[in-house]
Write a structure and sequence with these properties.
Blueprint lengths: L2 E2 L2 H11 L1 H9 L5 E6 L4 H17 L2 E6 L6 H13 L5 E4 L9 H7 L11 H8 L8 H12 L8 E5 L6 H9 L8 E5 L6 H5 L4 E4 L17 E4 L3 E4 L6 E4 L4 H7 L2 E2 L6 H21 L7
Helix pairs in contact: 1-11, 3-11, 7-8, 7-11
The structure holds nicotinamide-adenine-dinucleotide (NAD).
The site of nicotinamide-adenine-dinucleotide has 25 residues, from helix 11.
């Protein structure tokens, strides 16, 4: 029997688990605040940001939203970040990526005060995570670790394959899986666009994290019987639906489900966890900035 990993359910538990921390902060006069900054006309980015704002509202985090014209000078974005860094009501800052080409993305990541960097992408936070004392774990891989925990997936000594080496998913996921820490200790292989034999690596994998952005790249015949399969991909493919497209993952669900022991669906798997972990990091950030002890789920 294949177990469906329910990201909506685990995400709801995390969100519920943040309530105590938010209450402790409010009792000390602090409402956790998350600023989202959007400098893009991309409808998908607009949707992501509005979902993040709605999530904040639902759990009692103060959502602050700043929107800049996509063709505004880059300085406007850097100045906005400076203002948010200085604002004591803002504990977390998230600049929605991608930013326009005329903006220096690396400068943006470095401009955010590391203590407010709830995405965990500032070089200081990346370094801390790699060194094994993370301040903020990046939301998607952290959410995946929480899913592995919730579904009792044994990572210690397991063979794990991460498909994808991006800075936001593949690399930090790999790093968390190899840490000498709970839900780490896996023997981890990273596959990417130059990997010669993806199927050969997947054949031995007890845990697969697919984050390539390639629709249905991983199929059931590549997987080991009983593997845990975590599908990060969110790909729009043309379909005869009202919207003209449907969302599919990087895993071909129908064939993978036949072989996997545990598997995440798309949607309803990793996506809700990414959102929940942003709230988690924001509450943690508010605690760090106010010295109020907060219990985190
Ligand atoms: P990315 O494009 O930055 O990176 C993709 C990685 O996949 C690259 O490192 C590349 O080397 C590798 N790759 C590409 N083709 C490959 C192939 N044929 N075989 C093996 N590796 C291959 O993407 P990303 O930002 O890491 O996102 C990956 C996917 O996850 C996208 O579909 C994205 O929309 C989705 N995503 C989902 C969430 C979520 O919360 N569910 C969060 C972030 C990203």
């Amino acid at each position: 029997m294949t177990t469906l990993i329910d990201g909506n359910e685990v995400a709801a538990e995390i969100r519920d688990g943040l309530a105590d921390g938010i209450e402790s902060l409010k009792a000390e006069g602090t409402t956790p605040g998350l600023a989202t900054v959007l400098m893009s006309d991309d409808p998908a980015s607009e949707t992501y940001v509005s979902m993040k704002q709605r999530d904040c509202e639902e759990v009692g985090i103060n959502g602050i939203h700043v929107e800049l014209d996509a063709d505004a000078p880059a300085e406007e974005l850097y100045d906005t970040i400076d203002d948010l860094n200085a604002d004591p009501e803002v504990h977390g800052i998230l600049v929605q990526m991608p930013v326009p080409d005329h903006v220096d993305k690396r400068r943006v990541l470095r401009a955010i005060d590391p203590v407010k960097d709830v995405d965990g992408f500032h070089p200081e936070n990346v370094g801390r995570m790699v060194a094994g004392h993370a301040r903020y774990k990046p939301c998607t891989p952290h959410g995946i670790q929480k899913l592995l925990e919730a579904y009792d997936v044994e990572t210690e000594g397991a063979e794990a394959v991460v498909v994808g080496r991006s800075d936001i998913v593949g690399k930090p996921m790999t790093n968390l899986l190899i840490q000498k820490a709970p839900f780490g200790n896996a023997t981890t292989t990273v596959c990417h666009s130059r990997t010669k034999d993806l199927a050969g690596h997947l054949a031995d994998a007890d845990i697969v994290v697919a984050a390539a952005g390639v629709p249905e790249l991983v199929t059931g015949d590549m997987l080991k019987e009983g593997a845990t399969v975590v599908d990060v991909g969110i790909n729009r493919v043309d379909a005869a639906t009202e919207k003209g497209y449907e969302l599919v993952g990087d895993v071909e669900f129908e064939s993978a489900e036949e072989v996997a022991g545990k598997i995440t669906p798309v949607p309803g798997g990793v996506g809700p966890m990414t959102r929940a972990m942003l709230l988690y990091n924001t509450v943690k950030a508010a605690g760090l900035q106010t010295d109020v002890p907060v219990d985190l789920p």
